[in-house]
Amino acid sequence: MAQDAYFDIDQRVRNTLARVFHLSAAEIGGDLRMGHSPFWDSMGHMQLLIELEKEFSLTFPTYEIAELLSTEAIIKTVEKYVQDRLPG
Amino acid sequence: MDLLRNSISGIDFLFLIPVLVCIAASALVGLLPKLRSRYGLLTISLLATVGVYRRAILGYVLINLVTYLFVLGLDRIPSSSQLQRQHRWRWSIAAMLVLVFVFLAGRYYQLETRPVSLGVTLFYFSLNMWALLRLITLLWEFGSGRVAKPSPLAFVTWLALPFTLIGPILRYSQFAQQLPLMYGPQRTEGIDSKEWWRKLFWATGQISLGLLLSGFQISLAGSANSLSRWEKVAISFSLTPWSFYLLWAGYFKFMEGLAMFWGLSLPPSFNRPFGRRNLSEFWANWNMTATSVFRDYFFYNRWGLAKVHLYLNTLIVFLMVGVWHGLNGYWVLWGLLHGIGFCAYLWYRTNKQRFAIWQHKILDAPLRLAAPLATYLYVCSCWFLPPTILKLIR
At B36, phi and psi to the nearest 5? Predict the structure, then answer.
């Protein structure tokens, strides 16, 4: 069950990346990093942040925004906040 | 020949002091292996700092000491729970604001020029643009929990590093990662390689050319009244940007090469910024260590609002960059012009589809060529236009 939830986060993060940076399904696999897509620059990063916050209904602390520079880092951070929100 | 003589006479040779200090610092470590120790490097760093700051050393020590004491105080706040971490973060934000306020007050009241006599004449206040950014990165990284409390030795070595005294920015996290390597056996790896010599050669060339161009510009400024408006425009769009770029790109590259003697890897600062297709690309390649601090801390920020506002953030960041350069109308306008340009590009990028009608095989090539030229002209205009605008306002 927990694994499903994590898979869900992984997939939702990747889908958000694909939507914001106009990437195909093949391109969003693996660990995509800032700069890999021409759209993922500082402006694109903020657009991604807005979409991620909408997607997961969360607010990243300011100091963490500059750390979310790869798919892996984003997934890890989102998982951390989603887990914090779970009851118990 | 006269042109060359005039250019040389206009050069500000004080710029070479930090260069010479850093050459001496690296040569000492290269020639005397015994100095490659914690206290050896610390001693050279302190001597280099005195050499660069000279009479402002008292002010430089004071501001850094106060900041370090604050970090020690901040460390007393426990950080095991989310609430405690937030508490520490808020205190570090407050400290950053105080630091910015002190920096601005120092500029406004020109505190850096007020001496105190202690046998020798010293200045009790010194917080230049690079020292401010460096301390802000420390407060940010420590307050957010990214780095642990620096030891006094690590802190002093970091703030007194000869290669970063007047830029570029080496964040404390980047420095702390490399600290063990500075005393390790691999510290001089890469020195004497073909690439290293090429880097130093280019950097020296850039500095020399930058100095000559700035000297030429200064000699021309002496006869500014006899220059026509178009000659002034030509200088602003050619000499001014290139002399500044070559000088500082060369200086930072030179520092990167020299820092390798200490086993340090400095992040790159300039990556051919002129000729980029838009303002976003220009800023991503211009003075990168400083720009990245503004981007990471102030552009990636929600400013206490529930939603991120890209246009607002853009204007805030460029106004801050402007004021960082100088607390006067010129730099505020410079920041505003860049902010407006960046917002326009942001708007264009978000609404690119509307311009699909312009995409045409015949038009594409000229547009591709026009984009770097337009970006270059806009960047130069931001340096050139503020005095004219200020005159119009007054």
Answer: -80, 60
- Is residue A7 predicted with pLDDT exceeding 70? no
A2-85: what fold? 1.10.1200
A65 inside 8 A of chain B by CB = yes
Question: Do B372 and B332 belong together in one domain?
Answer: yes
Cβ–Cβ contact B114 with A under 8 A: no
Q: B122 pairs with which residues across the strands? A: B116
pLDDT tens-digit series, residues B170-219: 999 999 999 988 886 655 667 778 899 999 999 999 999 999 999 888 88
Q: Tell me if B300 and A65 make a contact (CB, 8 A cut-off).
A: yes
Task: Examine residue B358 and state whether it is found in any structural domain, yes or no.
Answer: yes
Q: pTM value?
A: 0.92
Distance from CA of A24 to the nearest CA of B (A): 19
| List of long-range contacts for B304-311, beta carbons under 8 Å, 24+ apart | B306/A59, B307/A50, B308/A46, B308/A49, B308/A50, B310/A43, B310/A46, B310/A47, B310/B346, B311/B343, B311/B346, B311/B347
- What interface predicted TM-score (ipTM) does this complex get? 0.86
CB–CB of A43 and B308 under 8 A? no
